[in-house]
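G., the chain you wanted modeled:
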Amino acid sequence: MSDKTVLVTGAGGFIGRQTLQPLCDLGYKVHVFEGDLLDSAITDKLLAKLRPSHLLHVAWYAEHGKFWMAPENTVWLEASTHLFKSFIAGGGRRILGVGSCAEYDWQRKDKTPWKETDPCRPHTPYGQAKLALQQRLAALPVSSAWARVFLLFGPDEKPERLVPYAIRKALAGEPVLCTEGTQLRDFIDTRICGRALAQLLDSGVTGPVNVASGETISVADLVKLVCGLCGHPESVKLGAIPMNKDDPPFMVPDLSRLRNEAKFREHQDTRQLLSGLIAQQREKSRG
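Predicted structure as tokens:
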């Protein structure tokens, strides 16, 4: 077994692809999981062949607009549990699983940054499955950490999501329809998230760790920033669609563990990153 060999699941996905180079930079020999992760025989065969020292598990059912309530969450919970056990059986030493801010209690009223020790009361099957997997992982005989990732944006994002939707509409000079946008959030670029995950895997930190940018911004201010950078600040139409009654007013993490224990302190320049995404969309539109 190589001293630092990592198997990455979901390596072609929105987050996973951004972990590969950072892992190489940290000295890992990187393998990507190829095949059907839901087939336990394929999982066992690959792990027996590669015998990686580390596992970064990013893969999950992620169909936009459907994954929150999908029955597939239970299927992925069981397949992921099998993956972890098979990895350990092959002598694997450390696992990093990727969870979600959906594990927390979205109905809490206070506006104190969410800590990993705060109560978890997920309100969706997605959040429930992720929390259940974190708890199962914590009980296994292996060094492990669990990344609770907050809201994401970045390259190759699905066009229906907030940032690419706002960019596309604003560049066309069309209305960007939003809620009132008072919700406070933390949005992290997937490239920074990928580097954070690589460093967290490489650390000795165990248990849940919030992963986010450390910047609090309202949805309204984010959309205004996008539209302004596109040259069409007038495109913003706040209050054009109703607020979802289940939409949490506050989703902002405490990053003490990420900053102080995992030693990941990269600053995110949201304006610059959005400008880059806007330039990419302009090129795509011309092409």
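The first strand starts at residue 5 and ends at 9.

Shout if anything looks off.
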